[in-house]
Amino acid sequence: MTNDPLILALETSSRIGSVALASGKNLLAQSSFSGPMRHSAEIFPAIVGLMDRFGRNPQQIDHVYISAGPGSFTGLRIAVTIAKTMHLANAAKIVPIDTLDVIAANVTEILSTTHANTQELLESNSAVPETSPARPLPINKIAAILDAKRNQFFIAVYNHSPKADNTPQDSKHAIRDTQYGIWKKTMPDSLMTAARFLDEFAQPGHPIYLLGDGLLYHNDKFKADGTRLLDQKYWSPRASNVHLLGWQMALAHQFADPLTLTPKYIRRPQAQEKWQQR
Predict the structure, then answer these.
(1) Residues 208 and 202: beta-carbon distance below 8 Å
(2) Label partner for 161 (CA 20 to 30 A): which of 89, 153, 168, 180?
(3) Could you give the domains of the chain?
């Protein structure tokens, strides 16, 4: 038997939820929900299914990593509640991960694609020269985008550094890729309009690459000379990335206090905002 902690990773912040099971740094399996906003109906069957598949039970879970927001208010509460329950039942340690970091971590999969065609990795309606060579994208700046409703978006920006040390320091909000270096968050989670984002970050000749579910119905608002939309398959957060980033933080002993753990909303629920305006 391994001494690595048994880890449950939960992603319920966005439209399509997922759960993952891992042993230490090794991802065992991931299970995605069958459709949008199926979190409450499918999360427990998905967890049980993974446990049964590997002959484990919930009492053996040592760590719970969750996508803690921003995102769906209901989905975030589900993940926090499960994490706190696991702590009460098993003394499981909890690591909350920024949802925009979870989305941004999809870039590690993009860069690991060998002999990738640039056009295939971008949305077909992005402005990319037809003569682009078949090679991995020279991406050095990305933005993760979520829809915050009312014509606003949750956005974070990340810059790439080609070298990364192997120490667990500064693991929070840093996405490590052993092959390509490290991505550092250079603009923290912010609430802004698409127009403001383009004004600050769209620079012709120095494109910023965009991903995230916030583009699903609003990608036209983010099209400009200085932006590129990555393929839609890289837009959604995944439980496998929750595990990837959570393990980095666990190595640095960056666990949450279960008593004070709350979702990262950034803004209040719409009902509360309307009440405050009365």
Answers:
(1) yes
(2) 153
(3) 6-99+237-277 (3.30.420.40), 107-234 (3.30.420.40)
